[in-house]
Amino acid sequence: MTRGKSVRASERLPGHLIRRLHQISTLVFHRHVQQMGYDITPVQFAALDALGHNPKIDQKSLAQLVAKDRATLGTVVERLEQKGLVTRHISPTDKRARVLALTSDGECVLDELLPAIIALQTEILPGLTEEEYRQFIALAGKAIAAAPADEH
């Protein structure tokens, strides 16, 4: 089989393209957040954002909101707690569950980061027009919504 200068198969595979976009997204995110003086990962930001909209939820619910398994989310919450951004308390209704909330520092960090994170989104998808950007968001959301529940 001749391969020549044709397009590689992986360049047409959604999984490969999604992986590359994830790499770009992560690099852009880290660059901007570090320039602002913060040591926050994309998953930590997602957890802060979810807690900002859902105060006093348990770790299991937060894991579902940020699409991470409970063990990974436990590590994320532990780091956020060490940074003084999140508190974790035993649930009064279920002694096995931990209830989470943003600290005042966590609220301030979220308030400062959120506008910057929103602003950098177009940098993650360079070369797209505004309409193409909206289409990408709509199509990506549609694909996620159609995936089986245990995959998102």
Please render the helix and strand layout as text.
Elements: H1 14-35, H2 42-53, E1 57-58, H3 59-65, H4 70-82, E2 86-90, E3 98-102, H5 104-124, H6 130-146
Antiparallel strand pairs: 1-3, 2-3
Helix pairs in contact: 1-5, 2-4, 2-5, 3-4
Characterization of the model:
The protein has 152 residues and is mainly alpha-helical. The chain has a single domain (12-141), classed as Winged helix-like DNA-binding domain superfamily/Winged helix DNA-binding domain (Arc Repressor Mutant, subunit A), CATH 1.10.10.10. It has helices at residues 14-35, 42-53, 59-65, 70-82, 104-124, 130-146; strands at 57-58, 86-90, 98-102. It has a 3-stranded antiparallel sheet. Helix 2 (42-53) crosses helix 4 and helix 3 crosses helix 4 (70-82). The longest helix is centred in the first third of the chain and has 22 residues, at 14-35. The mean pLDDT is 90.
Question: Which CATH class applies here?
Answer: Mainly Alpha
Shape: globular
Strand content: 5-15%
In DSSP terms, counting alpha (H) and pi (I) runs of 4 or more, how many helices? 6
Task: Please trace the helix and strand order, writing H or E for each element.
Answer: HHEHHEEHH
Q: Any idea what the CATH architecture is?
A: Orthogonal Bundle
| Counted beta strands | 3
Oligomeric state of this protein:
single chain
Q: List unreliable stretches of 5+ residues.
A: none
Query: What would you give as the CATH superfamily?
Result: Winged helix-like DNA-binding domain superfamily/Winged helix DNA-binding domain
Distance between the termini: 38 Å
Helical fraction: 55-70%
* Major β-sheet annotation: 3 strands, antiparallel
- Reported by name, the CATH topology is Arc Repressor Mutant, subunit A
Strand order in space, largest sheet: 1-3-2
Instruction: Report the average pLDDT across residues.
Output: 90
Structural class: mainly alpha
Cα-atom radius of gyration: 18 Å
Q: How many separate structural domains?
A: 1
